[in-house]
Please model this.
Amino acid sequence: MNDKLERLRFLDRERNLVARIGAVLGWDQETYMPSAGVAERAEQLAMIEGLAHEKGTLPEIGELLAALGSTDSNPAGDEALAPLDRAYLRTLHRGYTRAVKIPKALVEELARAGSLAQAAWAEARQKSEFKAFAPHLSKMLELRLRVAACIDPAKKPYDVFLDDFEPGSSEESIAKVFGELRTELVALLGKIRSRPQVDDAPIHRHCPEAAQVALSEWVLDELSFPRDRARLDKSAHPFTTTLGADDVRITSRYHEDFFVSSLFSAMHECGHALYELGMAPSPEYARTSLADSASFGIHESQSRMWENVVGRSEAFWKSRWPKLQATLGETLRGVSVEDFVRAVNKVEPSLIRVEADEVTYGLHIILRFEIESALVSGRLKVEDVPAAWNAKCKELLGIEPANDGEGCLQDVHWSFGGFGYFPSYSLGNLYAAQFWNAMRKDIPGLDASVASKAGLEAILAWLRNNIHSKAATLLPDELVLAVTGESLSARHFVKYLEEKYGRVYGF
Ligand code: CO
Model:
């Protein structure tokens, strides 16, 4: 049995090698590639993704899984196997049975169409012209629906998509959690809007890019970002990508009139990177499907915890205020740490998701969830997306975009066919609050401990131990139950928001 497991891990690592070569190409496309390179890069990525797909769907993998007793009704395989081996078989079985149902030609077509759609989206967004992007969106939707039909024709396509991001969830389960969240967020927003608005002028003062880069690099050191295993570069949109088990790349962008954007992006992406770098269920499972995240939502919980729970707290900045002022010079002259913390926690309905505060962010996600689930089920037509978007924006946030660039064209996700991706962002906030609450029981004085580097190291050690090292051995709901003793609930996040914004807005 051990020979068979060893062979499986070997084949799995080969697939992983090819996929990470693809990640190098993808990272380069977003950071350093000249724009004219896009057409051939699309071909390169299509070939690599096709190859990775081939490696991941070898008949031999299916034979080995079957020989180890891993079947649809018993994916974890032979009960005599060790728990970690059984967790591995369950994960591999899931990925393999999904992948094997999708023809290689369709995988390549998706990669090629996605690459072109992303380029078309970028241009359409710049010109605020949804019409130019609509045919690409239709194409991606059609291809993804074909994928869903290959994987499970009996299941709702949106539920099939959700399985890629948040295994075990469904449109119904998400709608339930989001329903509670929506009511609470709208109520909290109402309370906040009845109070005087905070002044965020100081964080919009001019700040040169070089100072922002220095600030980001400093904050990454505070968060124990390992320099020999990770690096920071610049791109149009911040992201994290893993090129190897010891090579994780993060990116940021710099607005000279809004320096906190790059600061919090760095903390956010650092959270993703630390998770990626800590996924080590055991040495023998390094670089296999088991050394992966539990879900996109769990991934997002790691980024948001560092960005929001730690990074937007007064305790974090109070002890570091002299350093921040010295790094930014003129920009923060005469500003107190209390003013700064209030400014970075300003709540105000806005049009752009990635610039939204913690309270209205969830409403942006609910908007996208409602639109994409309607699109996928056929309740909404592609050409009607802009009107539906604007109407929902008005309903949820009370404001309407002036054009599609700041409306339905603002996010890249649909251009690569990532329907079902958005809910993970909000789930990440909920998981983060619930994990933090559990961490409080193990780390006395947790909220104040972020003041020191040693405190941050203790938090990272807790995350390593309880979440990162578990990697994909547990499904998200199993992980939440194991770590917090209960299933996912919106109430921890709502409580966190109420306490924090009660302090910021004085209610
Ligand atoms: Co993120």
In short: The CA atoms of residues 223 and 234 lie 19 Å apart. The chain has a mean pLDDT of 96. Residues 268, 272, 300, 303 surround cobalt (II) ion (CB under 6 Å). The beta strands are 230-234, 240-244, 247-252.
